[in-house]
Write a structure and sequence with these properties.
The structure is a single chain. This protein is mostly helical. The protein folds into two domains: 1-31, no CATH class; 32-65, no CATH class. It has four helices and no strands. Helix 2 packs antiparallel against helix 3. The two termini are 28 Å apart.
């Protein structure tokens, strides 16, 4: 199981950490959105899917970082 940590919500930082801990205790291996998207793309030579992956990954939040 590879849950996306960006999707584990919480009403506070502590609630988010508790959610991550529950995932880890259930033997999940948390990943973030960017590595997951890159993993799904697998081969950047597959040009027909590159544009869609880039649109998913390059959100306003990531562009600001």
């Amino acid at each position: 199981m590879y849950p996306v940590v960006d999707a584990i919500g919480g009403t506070s930082v502590e609630a988010h950490r508790a959610g991550l801990e529950r995932v880890t205790l259930a033997r999940g291996q948390p990943v973030s959105l960017v590595p997951l998207a890159c993993e799904l793309q697998r081969d950047w030579a597959r040009l027909e899917t590159v544009e869609a992956v880039v649109q998913i990954v390059l959100t306003e939040r990531l562009l600001k970082e």
